[in-house]
From TrEMBL:
Cleavable signal peptide: none
TM annotation in the entry: 29-47, 52-70, 82-103, 123-156, 162-180, 192-219, 225-243, 264-286, 306-327, 339-356, 368-391, 422-446, 458-483
Short name of any one Pfam family annotated for the protein: GntP_permease
Protein's name in the database: Gluconate:H+ symporter
Location in or out of the cell: Cell membrane
Entry keywords, A to Z: Cell membrane, Membrane, Transmembrane, Transmembrane helix, Transport
Species in which this protein is naturally found: Lysinimonas soli
Principal localisation: membrane
Highest taxon listed in the record's lineage: Bacteria
Membrane topology field: Multi-pass membrane protein
Family: Belongs to the GntP permease family.
PANTHER family: GNT FAMILY GLUCONATE TRANSPORTER, HIGH-AFFINITY GLUCONATE TRANSPORTER
Record flagged with keyword Protein biosynthesis: no
């Protein structure tokens, strides 16, 4: 994984292609990107093709039509697939193992029983709060694979629409991913723009709280009416619960395996689930307050890496959710293997989404978008949001959009105060979240986990991301005016 220092050095050293004059290839890249996205949507929605095949076909078309040498087209696609699966794929697999053990041990039941206490109307707010807490140190994908079993079981038990609880959880994770350090996008923008981490964190929290409220529980009520689906998809398969099951426990919403002799306590369940959160928070604190090369820094970086943190949680769960509830070693091995079966399709689709994104980047779409944004001559905050939003729409990558947009507006930021530099970071982060669609691996992750169609994912997840982006910009501009 690229570090903040590496991102900052690369952005500073590399020539800025967006500063070059408009070229015919820029027009070609934009037209090809639009056609490529249309091909993917047409294949999936109208011809009912599998999303993996549709994304692969669309990516190869974009690569060839945008002028990437023929012998480099498949390499570009493979690089994108490997870049996503080499990291996110491992996390999804570990998260599925943790989710399976959490459910079969009865730990998920214990968490949901606690959440369901009190007024049912408070449940979406609880989901948003839990997701926001979990999302502080984690990538969106990591937080999602940890939350999915709890969200799906809560939906299954409450017999309500999945989006009523799913949208608040997704909003909590996404807002933290775009606005709050130590997430990689905001940290990279802070390094490139030489902003202050503490000021950015404080203003980011000030923006994040109302955005989570509106895009989460409030929009979740509307999304649940638009898409009134229940618990389904890979998320329900991970926890092993089915409304159609003949098992009395499953029929009543209980996911605990009949072989479990006891149920883990709520405290043990929380300790197990929050163990990766604690490890990653320790690393995040080290990233902010410990210089590189300081004694113990390498060890903290190692234990706080998401792969190690989730692996530690899985090993801990094999004790707390396995041996302590009565499962033997052979049973645990079978459960670990069974946990991976429901996510095979998810992995391939997410990987293909990463490949499609990489071909768009290599084909020059992001550079063309940046040139258009620069030509408008707007203020640094508005320009930062627009550049990030356009690159996000074109490439599907929030991190690519953040790093590219920060590099483009950096020359305009030299005269800004520390407060306005922090607001510029937040504006870039807000732009990087706008309207996730078929070229974003996260789009397919949400679609498959919640068992949605492409249209349903656009009406829920994509609209939610747009609300976050636009409201984030509005609050940033308001703060900019107020703090001038």
């Amino acid at each position: 994984m690229i570090t903040l220092a590496q991102l900052t050095t690369m952005a500073a050293a590399a020539p800025n292609p967006a500063a070059q004059p408009w070229a015919p290839h820029d027009t070609q890249a934009l037209i090809v990107a639009v056609i490529g996205i249309a091909i993917v949507v047409t294949l999936i929605v109208w011809l009912k093709a599998h999303a993996f095949l549709a994304l692969t076909i669309g990516a190869l078309f974009v690569g060839i039509a945008s002028g990437i040498p023929l012998d480099k087209v498949t390499a570009s696609f493979e690089t994108g697939v490997g870049g996503v699966l080499g990291y996110v794929g491992v996390l999804i697999g570990l998260g599925a193992m943790l989710g399976k053990l959490l459910a079969d041990s009865g730990g998920a039941d214990r968490v949901v029983d606690t959440l369901l206490r009190g007024r049912p109307a408070t449940l979406p707010w609880k989901m948003a709060l839990i997701a926001a807490i979990i999302g502080i140190p984690m990538f969106f994908e990591i937080g999602l694979v940890l939350l999915i079993p709890v969200v799906m079981l809560a939906v299954h038990r409450s017999k309500g629409p999945a989006m009523r609880l799913g949208i608040p959880a997704l909003a909590g994770l996404s807002v933290l991913h775009g606005f709050i350090p130590p997430h990689p996008g905001p940290l990279a923008a802070i390094g490139i723009l030489h902003a202050n981490v503490g000021i950015t964190l404080a203003l980011g929290l000030l923006v994040a709280i109302p955005v989570v409220i509106v895009a989460g529980p409030l929009f979740g009520m509307l999304a649940a009416r638009w898409v009134p689906v229940g618990a389904a998809g890979a998320g329900l398969a991970v926890i092993g619960a089915s409304a159609d099951s003949s098992d009395p426990k499953a029929a009543s919403g209980k996911a605990q395996d009949p072989d479990a002799k006891r149920t883990p306590s709520f405290a043990i369940t929380l300790v197990t689930l929050l163990s990766p959160l604690v490890l990653m928070l320790i690393k995040a604190a080290a990233d902010i307050w410990m210089p590189a090369g300081a004694p113990g820094r390498a060890f903290l970086d190692f234990i706080g890496d998401p792969v190690f943190a989730l692996l530690f949680a899985v090993l801990l769960a094999m004790v707390t959710f396995g041996l302590r509830v009565g499962f033997n070693a052979a049973t645990l091995s079978k459960k670990i293997g069974a946990s991976l079966l429901p996510i095979v399709s998810v992995l391939f689709i997410v990987g293909a989404g990463g490949g499609f994104k990489q071909v768009l980047v290599d084909g020059g779409t992001g550079t063309a978008i940046a040139k258009i944004a620069i030509a408008t001559g707007l203020t640094a905050i508005a320009l930062g949001w627009i550049v990030a939003a356009l690159i996000r729409l074109a490439t599907g990558s929030a991190t690519v959009a953040t790093v590219t947009a920060a590099g483009i507006v950096a020359p305009l930021s030299t005269h800004l105060s520390p407060v306005h530099l922090a607001l510029l970071v937040l504006a870039v982060g807000a732009g990087s979240l706008i309207f996730s669609h078929v070229n974003d691996a996260g789009f397919w992750l949400v679609k498959e986990y919640f068992g949605l169609t492409v249209g349903q994912t656009l009406k829920t997840w994509s609209v939610m991301e747009t609300i976050i982006s636009v409201m984030g910009l509005a609050l940033t501009l308001l703060l900019s005016t107020f703090l001038s």
